[in-house]
């Protein structure tokens, strides 16, 4: 039983986070994926996404078809995150076991989970899962463990690549130094390079397979996605509109209205958005670095302090090992600055990077045996400082839990109220028995924040009616586009929305739009239909104050 104590400890800690503190989606993307796989925002359960969950989507779509009330998306990603957790801590346990007594070893694992892993379970994201699977898979491949390590290691890397190849690639880069230290201990020469080559080979094979098997629809999505990422995520390109049509495109991009192919397409973005080196170096780069590095220090001060302490101990390393250690620090420092200043460094990427950084530093220090003898004063000082840091971080976790729980309750209540909002009007009721019609759709635009902070392990529903997404990355997936074509019987988005707005027999859609998106959408539709604020109190007695509001449409005939 002693050998399984770390395993049971991890299960207990994970259960404490999920059941006690709660799990919350970090972004709206994950809930949107769940809605697509279940068919709630698509013409049918969508098994294939252009850049995510390759192969796994078929199983999710089938599962939602069989049992639509089960939160299959959260269960699958949670199971995969549990696998990544067990693999990572297996390697950490192997590193620490020769140096700590059993009780102290369990305590060290618990502290590391609290400071460096708890957020992965509380702030849920498929990006974290993909990065951590590839990270932990490569660690297991590189660590000593015989032939039995190959199957779980390669499987973890493969699953990470299938979920999101770009995030899996970052996970491999984040663990490369630690894997190199571990592989050098486990073997010599080309044998030490085998794990690294195998993991990289899996990533390259998946990338090649996705490129060779991409449908024209998927290729178009990726082309558009890469250009939008340059403008919105990385802020590397700036718009330079010259005409009124250009201004419509820029407004659509700024408000994440990507569905109108005539406005938002790769050719239009290539023409309108350009890299301005002077503006980037003098304004964008300093602002991004200041924001991201400030947030990094605020959110991950325990890990940064641990890295600072490790740097102090590294002075006791032999000269050759010391040089390799500081090369590792430069590697991670450059990666952090590149992501923070040039690309993007949200929490779902920052913490996996820091996890890899800390493990690489720890592996180097343990290899150099710098902890064998150190003054009693150091022990007392570090122990007291460690207790203070843990206490401060526990207070931070408590505050974050309160904020996320309040957001979850607010967003869930808004979605519940939208579900029970009246879906008919007088003319629909008068004509229904002579002309039976399906329920009119719910059209969402600028309401993506309502899908943030929701629980991965709860199924949310907007009712039996079709739900059409207009904003956000998932809005230009194939599923919402097919749904609009099915509802309007027109191939393009803007003509389809005009036809939907007219609504046969008064069965017009219910438009839940933000105050910023509504005028932009009205401009795209050529001023017709006109969106007018509609003061609504739901049947559950909750008024829609702030955020997205209901809009009615004054339909005008098509020309």
Automatic annotation (TrEMBL):
Domain of life of the organism encoding this protein: Bacteria
Membrane-spanning parts: 70-89, 101-118, 124-143, 155-184, 196-214, 300-318, 324-342
Keywords for the protein's UniProt record, in alphabetical order: Membrane, Transmembrane, Transmembrane helix
Protein name per the record: Glycosyltransferase RgtA/B/C/D-like domain-containing protein
Species of provenance: Hymenobacter aranciens
